Write the C-alpha coordinates for this entry.
Amino acid sequence: MQPWPRLLATFVAVVLPVAVQAADGFDIVSLGALGGIQDGNLSAHLIRPHDDDRAVTCDAGTLVNGLRVAEERGSLGDVRLTPGSAESRVGHVLTQRIKGYLITHAHLDHVAGLVVASPDDSKKPIYGLASVNAALVDNYFNWQAWPNFTDRGKDPQLKKYTMVDLAPGVATPLRDTKMRVTAFPLSHGGVESTAFLIESDNDAVLCFGDTGPDAVEKGARLGDVWLAVAERVKQRRLKAILIEVSYTSDRPDAQLFGHLTPKWLMASLHDLDRAAGGGALAGLPVIVTHIKYSLTREQPQKKIQDELSAANDLGVRFILPSQGSRWHFR
Ligand SMILES: [Zn+2]
Ligand SMILES: [Zn+2]
Protein backbone atom coordinates (compact mmCIF):
# COMPACT_ATOMS: atom_id res chain seq x y z
CA MET A 1 0.00 0.00 0.00
CA GLN A 2 1.20 3.55 -0.79
CA PRO A 3 1.99 5.71 2.27
CA TRP A 4 -1.06 8.02 1.95
CA PRO A 5 -3.72 5.31 1.62
CA ARG A 6 -1.96 3.51 4.45
CA LEU A 7 -2.10 6.62 6.62
CA LEU A 8 -5.77 7.07 5.77
CA ALA A 9 -6.47 3.45 6.67
CA THR A 10 -4.66 3.92 9.98
CA PHE A 11 -6.70 7.09 10.65
CA VAL A 12 -9.96 5.30 9.95
CA ALA A 13 -9.00 2.23 11.98
CA VAL A 14 -7.36 3.89 14.98
CA VAL A 15 -8.14 7.61 15.28
CA LEU A 16 -11.81 7.66 14.29
CA PRO A 17 -13.09 5.09 16.79
CA VAL A 18 -11.18 6.88 19.57
CA ALA A 19 -12.70 10.19 18.48
CA VAL A 20 -16.18 8.66 18.44
CA GLN A 21 -15.66 7.18 21.90
CA ALA A 22 -14.12 10.37 23.30
CA ALA A 23 -15.92 11.69 26.31
CA ASP A 24 -18.07 14.76 25.87
CA GLY A 25 -18.20 16.03 29.43
CA PHE A 26 -21.13 16.20 31.79
CA ASP A 27 -24.65 17.60 31.88
CA ILE A 28 -25.64 19.07 35.23
CA VAL A 29 -29.10 20.31 36.26
CA SER A 30 -29.55 22.24 39.50
CA LEU A 31 -32.53 20.67 41.32
CA GLY A 32 -31.84 22.68 44.46
CA ALA A 33 -29.42 25.57 44.45
CA LEU A 34 -29.50 26.87 48.02
CA GLY A 35 -28.35 25.68 51.45
CA GLY A 36 -31.47 26.48 53.40
CA ILE A 37 -33.75 27.82 54.64
CA GLN A 38 -36.08 27.78 51.64
CA ASP A 39 -37.79 24.37 51.57
CA GLY A 40 -38.30 23.37 47.95
CA ASN A 41 -34.86 24.62 46.84
CA LEU A 42 -32.26 22.71 48.87
CA SER A 43 -28.91 21.21 47.77
CA ALA A 44 -29.32 18.70 44.93
CA HIS A 45 -27.69 18.41 41.51
CA LEU A 46 -28.50 15.96 38.73
CA ILE A 47 -25.29 14.77 37.04
CA ARG A 48 -24.82 12.57 33.98
CA PRO A 49 -22.35 12.10 31.14
CA HIS A 50 -23.48 14.22 28.19
CA ASP A 51 -23.65 11.16 25.97
CA ASP A 52 -25.61 8.93 28.36
CA ASP A 53 -28.96 9.65 30.00
CA ARG A 54 -28.41 7.55 33.12
CA ALA A 55 -27.83 10.01 35.97
CA VAL A 56 -27.17 10.25 39.69
CA THR A 57 -27.77 13.14 42.03
CA CYS A 58 -25.17 14.72 44.27
CA ASP A 59 -27.26 15.29 47.41
CA ALA A 60 -31.04 15.24 47.40
CA GLY A 61 -32.26 18.09 49.58
CA THR A 62 -34.93 18.81 46.96
CA LEU A 63 -35.95 16.27 44.32
CA VAL A 64 -39.50 16.44 42.96
CA ASN A 65 -39.83 20.20 43.27
CA GLY A 66 -36.43 20.60 41.57
CA LEU A 67 -37.52 18.35 38.70
CA ARG A 68 -40.78 20.34 38.37
CA VAL A 69 -38.90 23.63 38.15
CA ALA A 70 -36.35 22.12 35.75
CA GLU A 71 -39.18 20.94 33.52
CA GLU A 72 -40.87 24.36 33.58
CA ARG A 73 -37.57 25.92 32.53
CA GLY A 74 -37.15 23.42 29.67
CA SER A 75 -34.12 21.74 31.25
CA LEU A 76 -35.65 18.27 30.89
CA GLY A 77 -36.77 18.98 27.33
CA ASP A 78 -34.79 16.17 25.68
CA VAL A 79 -36.17 13.46 27.96
CA ARG A 80 -38.29 11.12 25.83
CA LEU A 81 -41.18 9.37 27.55
CA THR A 82 -42.17 5.77 26.98
CA PRO A 83 -44.87 5.88 24.23
CA GLY A 84 -48.34 5.13 25.62
CA SER A 85 -47.22 5.64 29.19
CA ALA A 86 -49.16 7.94 31.53
CA GLU A 87 -46.05 8.98 33.45
CA SER A 88 -45.00 12.61 33.61
CA ARG A 89 -41.54 13.76 32.64
CA VAL A 90 -40.86 14.47 36.35
CA GLY A 91 -41.93 10.93 37.26
CA HIS A 92 -39.90 9.42 34.43
CA VAL A 93 -36.69 11.17 35.47
CA LEU A 94 -37.19 10.35 39.16
CA THR A 95 -37.91 6.67 38.66
CA GLN A 96 -36.14 5.79 35.40
CA ARG A 97 -33.23 8.18 34.84
CA ILE A 98 -31.91 8.71 38.37
CA LYS A 99 -29.98 5.51 39.00
CA GLY A 100 -28.67 6.37 42.46
CA TYR A 101 -28.07 9.06 45.06
CA LEU A 102 -24.70 10.29 46.32
CA ILE A 103 -25.23 11.74 49.78
CA THR A 104 -22.51 14.01 51.19
CA HIS A 105 -23.87 14.05 54.75
CA ALA A 106 -27.15 13.42 56.50
CA HIS A 107 -28.15 17.01 57.34
CA LEU A 108 -31.80 17.55 56.48
CA ASP A 109 -31.13 20.18 53.80
CA HIS A 110 -29.24 17.50 51.81
CA VAL A 111 -31.65 14.58 52.14
CA ALA A 112 -35.20 15.90 52.68
CA GLY A 113 -36.20 15.50 49.00
CA LEU A 114 -35.01 11.89 48.94
CA VAL A 115 -36.88 10.99 52.13
CA VAL A 116 -40.22 12.50 51.11
CA ALA A 117 -40.07 11.15 47.53
CA SER A 118 -39.17 7.62 48.66
CA PRO A 119 -42.71 6.11 48.68
CA ASP A 120 -43.06 6.72 44.90
CA ASP A 121 -39.39 6.24 43.99
CA SER A 122 -37.91 3.21 42.21
CA LYS A 123 -35.40 0.68 43.55
CA LYS A 124 -31.83 2.06 43.49
CA PRO A 125 -28.66 2.43 45.54
CA ILE A 126 -27.75 5.21 47.96
CA TYR A 127 -23.99 5.82 48.08
CA GLY A 128 -22.18 7.42 51.00
CA LEU A 129 -19.39 7.10 53.51
CA ALA A 130 -20.26 4.55 56.20
CA SER A 131 -20.94 7.25 58.83
CA VAL A 132 -23.33 9.07 56.48
CA ASN A 133 -25.27 5.94 55.55
CA ALA A 134 -25.56 5.00 59.21
CA ALA A 135 -26.92 8.46 60.07
CA LEU A 136 -29.49 8.23 57.23
CA VAL A 137 -30.80 4.87 58.42
CA ASP A 138 -30.70 5.72 62.15
CA ASN A 139 -32.28 9.18 61.93
CA TYR A 140 -34.80 8.98 59.09
CA PHE A 141 -35.46 5.46 57.82
CA ASN A 142 -36.19 4.14 61.32
CA TRP A 143 -40.02 3.60 61.18
CA GLN A 144 -40.47 6.62 63.47
CA ALA A 145 -39.34 9.55 61.36
CA TRP A 146 -40.23 7.57 58.20
CA PRO A 147 -40.74 3.97 57.03
CA ASN A 148 -37.52 2.05 56.51
CA PHE A 149 -37.12 1.93 52.73
CA THR A 150 -33.51 0.72 53.06
CA ASP A 151 -31.91 -2.67 53.42
CA ARG A 152 -30.45 -1.88 56.86
CA GLY A 153 -31.64 -1.02 60.34
CA LYS A 154 -35.07 -1.56 61.84
CA ASP A 155 -37.26 -4.40 60.58
CA PRO A 156 -39.12 -4.70 58.37
CA GLN A 157 -36.62 -3.44 55.81
CA LEU A 158 -38.50 -2.53 52.64
CA LYS A 159 -35.24 -2.81 50.63
CA LYS A 160 -36.09 -0.18 48.01
CA TYR A 161 -32.73 1.47 48.63
CA THR A 162 -29.52 -0.55 48.74
CA MET A 163 -27.10 1.26 51.03
CA VAL A 164 -23.58 1.22 49.55
CA ASP A 165 -20.73 2.23 51.88
CA LEU A 166 -17.93 3.94 49.96
CA ALA A 167 -14.35 3.42 51.12
CA PRO A 168 -12.54 6.79 51.12
CA GLY A 169 -10.28 7.32 48.10
CA VAL A 170 -11.41 4.16 46.26
CA ALA A 171 -13.12 4.47 42.85
CA THR A 172 -16.42 2.55 42.86
CA PRO A 173 -18.64 1.93 39.81
CA LEU A 174 -22.06 3.59 39.98
CA ARG A 175 -24.44 0.74 39.23
CA ASP A 176 -26.41 0.89 35.97
CA THR A 177 -24.49 3.98 34.75
CA LYS A 178 -21.18 4.46 32.97
CA MET A 179 -19.86 6.56 35.86
CA ARG A 180 -17.69 5.79 38.86
CA VAL A 181 -17.30 7.70 42.11
CA THR A 182 -14.52 8.31 44.61
CA ALA A 183 -15.46 9.69 48.04
CA PHE A 184 -13.21 12.02 50.06
CA PRO A 185 -14.10 12.81 53.69
CA LEU A 186 -14.57 16.48 54.62
CA SER A 187 -14.74 18.25 57.97
CA HIS A 188 -18.02 20.13 58.50
CA GLY A 189 -18.05 21.58 62.00
CA GLY A 190 -17.76 18.22 63.76
CA VAL A 191 -19.80 16.26 61.22
CA GLU A 192 -18.20 14.06 58.56
CA SER A 193 -19.16 15.33 55.11
CA THR A 194 -17.99 14.23 51.66
CA ALA A 195 -16.60 15.40 48.33
CA PHE A 196 -17.48 13.11 45.42
CA LEU A 197 -15.23 12.81 42.36
CA ILE A 198 -17.55 11.53 39.62
CA GLU A 199 -15.84 10.17 36.51
CA SER A 200 -16.99 9.00 33.11
CA ASP A 201 -14.42 7.89 30.54
CA ASN A 202 -11.63 10.46 31.02
CA ASP A 203 -13.85 13.26 32.28
CA ALA A 204 -14.62 14.16 35.87
CA VAL A 205 -16.67 16.55 38.00
CA LEU A 206 -16.13 17.19 41.68
CA CYS A 207 -19.13 17.77 43.95
CA PHE A 208 -18.61 18.99 47.51
CA GLY A 209 -20.89 18.66 50.46
CA ASP A 210 -20.73 21.22 53.23
CA THR A 211 -17.19 21.94 54.38
CA GLY A 212 -15.31 24.37 56.55
CA PRO A 213 -11.90 25.79 55.61
CA ASP A 214 -8.94 23.63 56.70
CA ALA A 215 -7.51 26.45 58.86
CA VAL A 216 -10.76 26.84 60.78
CA GLU A 217 -11.53 23.10 60.99
CA LYS A 218 -7.89 22.52 62.07
CA GLY A 219 -7.32 19.73 59.55
CA ALA A 220 -6.23 19.10 55.96
CA ARG A 221 -9.22 17.45 54.34
CA LEU A 222 -9.93 20.11 51.70
CA GLY A 223 -6.21 20.21 50.89
CA ASP A 224 -6.19 16.42 50.54
CA VAL A 225 -9.02 16.58 47.99
CA TRP A 226 -7.08 19.14 45.94
CA LEU A 227 -3.96 16.92 46.00
CA ALA A 228 -6.05 13.98 44.79
CA VAL A 229 -7.51 15.88 41.80
CA ALA A 230 -4.56 18.17 40.92
CA GLU A 231 -3.31 16.01 38.07
CA ARG A 232 -6.77 15.89 36.47
CA VAL A 233 -7.02 19.67 36.76
CA LYS A 234 -3.64 20.04 35.09
CA GLN A 235 -4.76 17.79 32.24
CA ARG A 236 -8.08 19.70 31.94
CA ARG A 237 -9.98 16.49 32.65
CA LEU A 238 -11.87 18.02 35.57
CA LYS A 239 -14.81 19.74 33.86
CA ALA A 240 -16.47 21.48 36.82
CA ILE A 241 -16.41 21.86 40.59
CA LEU A 242 -19.56 22.25 42.69
CA ILE A 243 -18.65 23.75 46.04
CA GLU A 244 -20.41 25.58 48.82
CA VAL A 245 -20.31 29.20 49.92
CA SER A 246 -22.81 29.73 52.72
CA TYR A 247 -22.05 33.26 53.90
CA THR A 248 -20.49 36.53 52.79
CA SER A 249 -16.85 37.15 53.74
CA ASP A 250 -17.63 39.38 56.71
CA ARG A 251 -18.85 36.34 58.66
CA PRO A 252 -16.49 35.75 61.64
CA ASP A 253 -14.57 32.45 61.51
CA ALA A 254 -16.03 31.49 64.89
CA GLN A 255 -19.52 31.56 63.33
CA LEU A 256 -18.84 29.55 60.15
CA PHE A 257 -20.23 26.30 61.65
CA GLY A 258 -18.27 24.28 59.08
CA HIS A 259 -18.98 26.41 56.00
CA LEU A 260 -17.08 28.55 53.47
CA THR A 261 -17.20 32.22 52.49
CA PRO A 262 -15.92 33.79 49.21
CA LYS A 263 -12.67 34.71 50.99
CA TRP A 264 -12.11 31.16 52.20
CA LEU A 265 -13.14 29.59 48.87
CA MET A 266 -10.60 31.74 46.98
CA ALA A 267 -7.87 30.85 49.50
CA SER A 268 -8.66 27.16 49.04
CA LEU A 269 -8.75 27.40 45.23
CA HIS A 270 -5.26 28.92 45.44
CA ASP A 271 -4.18 25.72 47.22
CA LEU A 272 -5.60 23.72 44.30
CA ASP A 273 -3.89 25.98 41.77
CA ARG A 274 -0.53 25.50 43.51
CA ALA A 275 -1.04 21.72 43.65
CA ALA A 276 -1.85 21.73 39.91
CA GLY A 277 1.32 23.64 39.05
CA GLY A 278 -0.09 27.19 38.72
CA GLY A 279 -2.31 28.80 36.07
CA ALA A 280 -4.36 25.62 35.80
CA LEU A 281 -7.73 26.99 36.87
CA ALA A 282 -8.33 29.58 34.15
CA GLY A 283 -11.81 29.02 32.70
CA LEU A 284 -12.65 26.19 35.10
CA PRO A 285 -16.38 26.31 35.94
CA VAL A 286 -16.98 26.51 39.70
CA ILE A 287 -20.66 26.25 40.65
CA VAL A 288 -21.22 28.02 43.95
CA THR A 289 -23.82 26.04 45.86
CA HIS A 290 -25.47 26.24 49.29
CA ILE A 291 -25.86 30.04 49.57
CA LYS A 292 -28.43 30.54 52.32
CA TYR A 293 -31.77 32.10 51.50
CA SER A 294 -32.14 35.30 53.51
CA LEU A 295 -35.23 36.60 55.30
CA THR A 296 -34.02 40.15 54.75
CA ARG A 297 -35.21 42.04 51.65
CA GLU A 298 -31.85 41.54 49.95
CA GLN A 299 -30.49 38.09 49.05
CA PRO A 300 -26.73 37.54 49.56
CA GLN A 301 -26.10 36.37 45.95
CA LYS A 302 -25.08 39.79 44.62
CA LYS A 303 -22.61 40.45 47.44
CA ILE A 304 -21.13 36.93 47.16
CA GLN A 305 -20.83 37.31 43.38
CA ASP A 306 -19.11 40.71 43.81
CA GLU A 307 -16.71 39.36 46.43
CA LEU A 308 -15.79 36.37 44.26
CA SER A 309 -15.31 38.54 41.15
CA ALA A 310 -13.12 41.02 43.02
CA ALA A 311 -10.87 38.27 44.41
CA ASN A 312 -10.79 36.09 41.27
CA ASP A 313 -7.13 36.35 40.25
CA LEU A 314 -7.18 32.72 39.02
CA GLY A 315 -9.56 33.28 36.10
CA VAL A 316 -12.05 30.76 37.48
CA ARG A 317 -15.54 30.86 35.90
CA PHE A 318 -17.83 31.27 38.92
CA ILE A 319 -21.46 30.29 38.39
CA LEU A 320 -24.16 31.14 40.93
CA PRO A 321 -26.89 28.68 39.98
CA SER A 322 -30.63 29.12 40.09
CA GLN A 323 -32.97 26.17 40.52
CA GLY A 324 -33.68 24.41 37.23
CA SER A 325 -30.55 25.68 35.43
CA ARG A 326 -28.82 23.22 33.14
CA TRP A 327 -25.25 23.23 31.82
CA HIS A 328 -23.11 21.11 29.56
CA PHE A 329 -19.51 21.21 30.79
CA ARG A 330 -16.87 19.83 28.45
ZN1 LIG B 1 -26.19 22.06 54.27
ZN1 LIG C 1 -24.54 20.41 56.67
